Amino acid sequence: MPKVGIVISNYNGWQDTLICLDSLQKQTFTDFEVILIDDASPNDSVAQLQNKLPPNTVFLPQERNVGFAAANNIGMRRALDDGCDFALLLNNDTSVRPDFLEKLLAETPAGAASCPKMLFMDPPDEIWFAGGELDPKTGKVKHLGGHKKDGPEFAEKKQVSFITFCCVLLPRAVIEKVGYLDETLFMYCEDVDYCIRLAQAGVPMWFLPDAVIHHKAGGSAGGMLSVYYITRNTLYLTCKGKSAAYAKLKTILPLLTGAARYALTKLLGRKKGRSYGAFRGAVDFWNGKMGRMKGAN
């Protein structure tokens, strides 16, 4: 049985996915399987992928679009069912260095979650993520090193309070202790929620820069949709476990701010964009609408 189950979710991005899969086949550590979930892509992703997959790939096309969190949960459960000691969640718009998995496994402390250094694909020497900081009270996160040139200041292993789930290594024991991703979120902020739960469970999180991947960034969604989900889901996380009255009170300011900005956008004759996403995200949270954004493509 494979030691690591690498979970990748594809949505309309088969070209990126093939690049990612190709880089994984060059790993110096080879005791792994790839669990590839196509999240009901409306384009020809399934047809493009199914005859080009490496032999160590389990392909699980979905009949309906379940979202990033649920798709990764499907893959994590399959990894554990297959006897894997670790699940590695990996974005499809990444390319990994040949020794990435070997170094990540060798340097991850027992019982910890970990992540590699993440550089942009272009420019390839620029930091996308070098560990993160999370304020659990507000749900706000900070990517350390963003857009800085890679160098000695990003070469130190360290514990962090946030790991982006663009790439995260989770031991079986951690998943069994903390559970799976919160599918209520659909996409975005599921890593924020999980890192809060990791901290609450006493699971350390490590940034391990000897392991390196490159990230294209923005391969699944962006613009209005990303603002919508981040606005709505951040409200959900900050109100989680609180009263309905607290949730309403917490939503008033973003609701009014979003409405004002969207009204200005309409007044200027511009198309629906980020301001609409923020407004709609606050409205939907106010109305208790979670999951996939209604009317989204």
Automatic annotation (TrEMBL):
Q: Which InterPro entries match?
A: Glyco_trans_2-like, Nucleotide-diphossugar_trans
Q: Which Gene3D superfamilies does the record cross-reference, listed alphabetically?
A: Spore Coat Polysaccharide Biosynthesis Protein SpsA, Chain A
Q: In which pathway does it act?
A: Cell wall biogenesis; cell wall polysaccharide biosynthesis
GO function terms (MF aspect): glycosyltransferase activity
Name all Glycosyltransferase 2-like domain ranges: 6-178
> What is the similarity comment for this entry?
Belongs to the glycosyltransferase 2 family.
Q: Is-annotated flag, keyword Magnesium?
A: no
List the protein's name: Glycosyltransferase 2-like domain-containing protein
Keywords, alphabetical? Glycosyltransferase, Transferase
